[in-house]
Amino acid sequence: MMRLILATLLLALTPWRASAQPLTLDEVLRSSATHAPAILEAITRERAAGGRRLSAEGAFDLLFEGDAQSRLLGTYDGTIVEGKVSRPFATNGGELYGGYRVSRGDFPIYEDKSFTNRLGEVKVGAIFSLMRDRFVDERRTRLGLADGDIALARLDREMIAIGVQRRAIDAYQAWVAAGLRVIVYRDLLSLATERQASIERQIALGAQPSILGTENRQNIVRRQTLLVRAEQQLDAAANALSFYLRDEAGEPVAPPADRLPDRFPELRLPPMGADLARRIVRPDLDAILVKLDQVEARRELAENDLLPRLDVRAEAAKDVGPIGLGGASRTPAEAIVGLRFSLPLERRQARGRIAEAAAEADGLRLRRKLIEDQILVEVNGLAIQVDAAERLATLAGDEAALATRMAEAERRRFALGASDFIVVNLREESAADARLRQLDAEYQRSAARAELVAATVDRAQLGL
């Protein structure tokens, strides 16, 4: 039993922390922001949105078309080969195009336009939309929607990152709290083991009964049990923190006990005031604005489909080379202007899309109002919680200081023989309980501050 007591005494007197640099909250948040799987997954969704945007840009790509036709049987032996290059306008529903065609052989009179001079015909032209597709068309709308999807993916990544960083702060604070509790129980055990040596000397001198040594050894074992439980909780907290603390390869790292800091992180509070909730810029609110822009874009496209189509086409063409079988009429340069008109008569599809977009926009506005009200209530509640936690932490600190003074005074009285073991033990455990309550109050204060930092989206303190 004496060997156990001596071993316990050496363990208690061993320094709790070596010279390792304490693990800071900033280090944890940097690691989490860089390597957290949830954030990395959100980044891949943002990249996917960028790919969809590139795909939407493909609607404005340069397009080449080719066609060849030859008569193998029959009265006529005409062959024609043609190619066309076109590119849509970025600011109009029309396009710019150019082409070349060349023919050989004879064609029937009803295909007279197939004839070209020997070196073919070159043409260039443009189509302009004057009503439908003039300001809005499907291509440009899809591009705008793709830009909105990128913004939504970015905002979703920010929301996920805020949540991850908030949980990382939780895990770090829980680890620090567990470590500080271990220190309290180590100090409590150290007092009992140090007292055992004094009691053994007094028993040897006949100043104390031997049962007192047995009672103190029982107290040592009970305090060892409390310490082991606290150390188990510390190991569990370190394991939970390893989900956010990672090495350069992104693998979880459980922080060793010698990197424990001696206090909770000091998080700055935002400027308080009645308008605090109104000053917050949150990604979830911005996402609703982006969705409203997308709904408005779809509504404008539907209104565009209600319009009649009126397109004007201007084209210039010139046959080159020796005169072909079509005759000399192909040689002069040509300038052609044309119009195309169409009018949808019932337009129920477009009207239905307009009604759908209007309803969706109303729903998003109500959703935004709901989130704003929730933020107002949440932030005001957190402000109240922070204020109460600050006061409770101050009171708990005062109580712990008084309880510690009482325990020290009782130990001095016991050393002088003016007190007994039971009272000393009660004073020490009361002081330890007061220290634990102080730790819990400081933990709650730090947690409340972290909640407010996350709710107000303080990117600097969240490590974003």
Name the features:
464 residues, alpha+beta, 6-stranded antiparallel sheet, 8 helices, 58% helix, disordered N terminus
Explain how this protein is built:
- The two termini are 55 Å apart.
- The protein is built from 8 helices and 6 strands.
- It has a 6-stranded antiparallel beta sheet, with no helix packed on it.
- It is of the alpha+beta class.
- Helices cover 58% and strands 12% of the residues.
Short précis:
The chain is an alpha+beta fold and 464 residues long.
What is the number of helical segments per DSSP (H or I, 4+ residues)?
Answer: 8
Mean pLDDT: 85
The strands making up the biggest β-sheet line up spatially as 1-2-3-4-5-6
Radius of gyration: 41 Å
- Topology, number of strands: 6
Contiguous low-pLDDT stretches (5 residues minimum) are 1-18
User: What structural class do the secondary elements suggest?
Assistant: alpha+beta
User: How much helix, percentage-wise, in residues?
Assistant: 55-70%
Strand content: 5-15%
Q: Main β-sheet: number of strands, strand sense, barrel status?
A: 6 strands, antiparallel
Q: End-to-end distance, in Å?
A: 55 Å
Overall morphology: elongated
